[in-house]
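lol forgot to send this yesterday, sorry. struct tokens for the thing we talked abt
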């Protein structure tokens, strides 16, 4: 099994930038796609971004395209989400998740990701 822990959240001002990290331990990280999701109060999990195991395919939600950047460093077993020009509507708990090994896509759906971190809160004040 693979364990994930997010870090880097906090309280920021409208327009600020924040970088999140997702550190993986346990079973192999390098052969898994990584997804970032968020959940605002009273809402369902929302897809944010995903990156394939090799970093060659990346997808973003329309709401974050051009502002957020997903990346990974397989040597460090870590994925990243750089968030620029944050808005109050970006306020949520942010989760990273990974697929089973050898899944080849950058998936939108939560069902493709059986392993999740506990999440980190990002709050954007106006």
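and heres what i got for the seq, position by position
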């Amino acid at each position: 099994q693979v364990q994930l822990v997010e870090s880097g959240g906090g309280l920021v001002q409208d327009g600020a930038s924040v970088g999140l990290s997702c550190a993986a331990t346990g079973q192999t990280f390098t052969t898994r796609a990584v997804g970032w999701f968020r959940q605002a109060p009273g809402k369902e999990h929302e897809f944010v971004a995903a990156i394939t195991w090799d970093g060659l395919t990346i997808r973003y939600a329309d709401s974050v395209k051009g502002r957020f950047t997903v990346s990974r460093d397989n040597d460090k077993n870590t994925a990243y989400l750089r968030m620029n020009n944050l808005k109050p509507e970006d306020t949520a708990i942010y989760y990273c998740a990974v697929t089973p090994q050898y899944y080849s896509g950058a998936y939108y759906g939560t069902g493709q990701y059986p392993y999740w971190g506990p999440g980190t809160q990002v709050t954007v004040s106006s």
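The two ends are 40 Å apart (CA to CA). anyway ping me if u want another try
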